[in-house]
Amino acid sequence: MSDFKKAILDQFWEGAEQIGLQTLLKSNTANIRKILCKCCSVPHELTGDMFMEMCVVKSFGERGSNMRQQSEDVAQNFESFVFDCQEGKCQYTDGVVHLCDILQFLTGCSSIPPGGFDNKFTVNFTDVKCYPSVSTCTLDLTLSIHLVNYKNFHDVMIEAIVSGPGFD
User: Fold this and answer.
1) Which is it for the CA torsion 108, 117, 92, 72, positive or negative?
2) 101-116 per-position pLDDT tens digit
3) Cβ of 145: how many Cβ atoms within 10 Å?
4) pLDDT by residue (tens digit) across 32-41?
5) Which end of the chain is more exposed for a tag (fewer CB within 10 A), N or C?
6) What percent of the chain has pLDDT over 90?
7) Per-residue exposure over 72-87, b if at least 16 CB sit within 10 Å of its own CB, e if not
8) Can you name the CATH fold of 48-163?
9) CB atoms closer than 10 angstroms to residue 5
């Protein structure tokens, strides 16, 4: 550790001790770990229902339009894909895509943080033929309305998730 970083940490701990925080943290290490560390607490099993509860699906296109119908079909495909992942049905040559893989693709996190996410995930649509894209900062997923065929949607989602995890 560099002298610069050590000086910053020493100053932090000195300030923490002035208000009794350092002593409190050291005397309750096990409880603090349960709150702050995924590895130390029993992880909650992510379910399809939990995942979909964290999503907000945005409307696309005018009510009654073909674009609106296609976006609703693709939204249904996304929900079906989430539940297929829960059931282990999203297989590819080298393995299976699980819910934690979708979560990592969308957020950069393979599990829900102890404090949860600040916002719900937003599912958006585009009329451009493209692969699914994400913004891990804003928790946005953008899907092409051209993915109305579930088999095609399934294959494209798996390829996008497997080809671009971005965070390990």
Assistant:
1) negative
2) 999 999 988 888 877 8
3) 22
4) 776 666 554 4
5) C
6) 60
7) bbbbebbbebbbbbbe
8) Hect, E3 ligase catalytic fold (3.30.2410)
9) 9
